Amino acid sequence: MSVPNSEVSQKLYIETYGCQMNVADSEVVASILKEKGYDITENINEADVILVNTCSIRENAEQRIWGRLDVFKQIKKNKPELTVGVIGCMAERLKEKLLEEEKTVDIVVGPDAYRELPSLLETAETGQRGVNVILSKEETYADISPIRLDKNRISAFVSIMRGCNNMCSYCIVPYVRGAERSRNPESILKEIEDLFNKGYKEVTLIGQNVDSYNWESENENLPALSSRQEGGRQGKSLKFAQLLEKAAKISPKLRIRFSTSHPKDMSDEVLYTMAMYGNICNYIHLPAQSGSTKVLAEMKRGYTREWYMNRIMAIRQILPDSAISTDIMTGFPGETEEDHQETLSLMEFVNYDFSYMFKYSERPKTYAARHLKDDVSEGTKSRRLTEIINLQSQLSERSKKADLGKVFEVLVEGISKKSSEHLFGRNSQNKVVVFPKNDFAIGDYVFIEITECTSATLIGIPVK
Ligand code: 5AD
Ligand code: SF4
Which mutation among 14, 20, 22, 206 tests ligand 2's pocket best, with the greatest number of atoms within 8 A of CB? Predict the structure, then answer.
């Protein structure tokens, strides 16, 4: 057992950018450092250590971090003893270059090296700057109990795997987060149970590609796992559908969500598991990226337009009430007007409830950066993105209007930003619902009949 280091009594401020995985990682980092005596603060001005957990997914994500480093530089002018650390994906991508280019930065730590943070911070105190960006094939931080940095204490992310093996041609993730590895299911289930016992009502199981979750064990005595005979070797394996089921069984009062699904791997088995348990939310985020089979092939996504449509039809058939969202990227090298139209028509076909929409941004080292010319002009990318956003606005409105008159069970998350007399929460489909406060409290489940909607929100009244 590690003993808190009583010599450290410093205040730590963590700022997080990027995806849910980074949010979860910051909670692991907070746990590692709290164990060593650091106090977490939400006030940057009282921090002795600032860590910024970074994202490299698009050029503009990195630009934002450079902007923040300028701000930290100003803070450090008045407080030279302040330690600044860059952690996460941009740390992994730029490595020592970050120290060379930015004198404000004292330490640079990649996503698989967070256990080294205490010693790197210790070294930084002596004036030495340090880098650890070693990627691991095994690290899942399975034994670390994350310190929740969220405010509402209702909903938490639980990381089930790390890294990615897909190598989509545009994507930096495999380079900055390393190879895919699944986390021990027992540690995942224990973390979820602990959260439930602390009063959490919702967990989101996260990984770059949850459908390829696969835990292999040689241990015959693990009752959690089903037997499998392969190549004469008796072993045990647990796939995502089974993990999902075990998580759902912890309590019907605990909602289970997950992200991100991959169209090439999303199995009917997962959909049937979702259908079987009312507490597994009816919401699937299924990034399409493009509606053109030709572009999908260039992206090395591993599926065609038709395959994707088939997966959507399976969702519609097995989970008719499910909401579906997606990621769309426009302006990939070689994308023609015809390809763009195919993306728009796929969006219409699916009738997405929600989309995250991006312009292609060339990332160094990726296959696309090495082999494909970023040949769609900025003007064309902008115009296509606007068309995609406009279409999604229509689809989102359609999706909300279709909910008028329906009754949903809503998990209350907080007080509405617009009115202290109203609460907000989400339904199973992940749509935000606003309703009168009455005597309800954060964390309650409330049945709401939808009476109105705006472009982003459903509005309703409680029903018995
Ligand atoms: N440029 C633009 N968007 C990207 N994404 C991933 N890589 C890039 C890139 N190079 C988008 C994809 C992915 C989401 C997380 O970010 O749509 O699903
Ligand atoms: Fe998350 Fe990818 Fe950004 Fe890293 S680069 S924070 S994995 S979105």
Answer: 22
CB 118 within 8 A of CB 32: yes
Pocket test for ligand 2, best of 15, 19, 64 (most atoms within 8 A of CB): 19
Q: Tell me the C-alpha distance between 7 and 44, whole Å.
A: 22
SS3 75: helix
Mark whether 59 and 112 lie in a shared domain.
Answer: yes
pLDDT in tens, 341-397: 999 999 999 999 999 999 999 999 999 999 999 999 999 999 999 999 999 999 999
CATH of the domain at 217: 3.30.750.210
For the chain, the maximum distance between any two Cα atoms, rounded to a whole number of angstroms, is 66
Q: Provide the domain limits for residue 201.
A: 150-281
Q: Which of 228, 263, 281 is the last residue of a domain?
A: 281
The domain boundary, picked from 223, 247, 281, lies at: 281
The finding on whether 358 has its CB within 6 A of some atom of ligand 1 is yes
**Number of structural domains in the chain:** 3
Ligand 1 site-directed mutation target among 21, 57, 354, 372, most atoms within 8 Å of CB: 57
User: Among residues of the chain, what percentage have pLDDT more than 70?
Assistant: 95
Same domain, residue pair 165 and 91: no
Number of Cα atoms under 13 Å in the Cβ half of residue 107: 30
CA of 144 to the centre of ligand 2 (A): 21
Whether 296 contacts 289, CB under 8 Å: yes
pLDDT tens, 219-246? 655 555 554 444 444 458 999 999 999 9
Whether 162 and 272 map to the same domain: the answer is: yes
DSSP-assigned beta bridge partners for residue 356: 327
CB of 254 within 6 A of ligand 2: the answer is no
CA-wise closest residue to 91 among 137, 133, 58: 133
155 and 277 assigned to the same domain: yes
57 lines ligand 2 (CB under 6 A): yes
Is the CB of 18 inside a 6 Å radius of any atom of ligand 2? yes
